[in-house]
Amino acid sequence: MDKTQQLFDQYHRFDDGTLVSFGHVYGPQGVQAVRIVLSARNHALEGNVWRQVAITVGDVREVLVRMPGNFINRICCGVKLLRFGDVWCVDVDGTYAHDDPATLEEVRRDGDCYVIGGTVEAVELD
Predict the structure, then answer these.
(1) Burial letters for 8-42: b for 16+ Cβ neighbours within 10 Å, e otherwise?
(2) Cross-strand bridge partners of residue 24
(3) Which end of the chain lies in a sparser environment, N or C, as judged by fewer CB atoms within 10 Å?
(4) Which domain of life is it from (predicted)?
């Protein structure tokens, strides 16, 4: 988990990046994992270094994706890595009353793209 949090910090929550893909891995019980790929700048490196990062949420309990089609999704409000009790929430570009939502109910009410699950891992792809 430390590496995942470190990547969220190095990429400044992926602000000004783009959503490359949002994929589901299905199993007998429904969605087992969601893989989100983002292209963003790594602010910890010298220069203007952009890379792709894959965020995988496992043991998925809830997914909502409400986005227009035929649209490049630029990240304006960041990708939030949130912990609520025993679950993780990855919220893509949600706008809330404060920087981060205080509860899962707030995410459900105001979020347009989020995944709630038991595990989360982020890795650089290039």
Answers:
(1) bebbbbbbebebbebeeeeeeeebebbbbbbbbbb
(2) 34
(3) C
(4) Bacteria
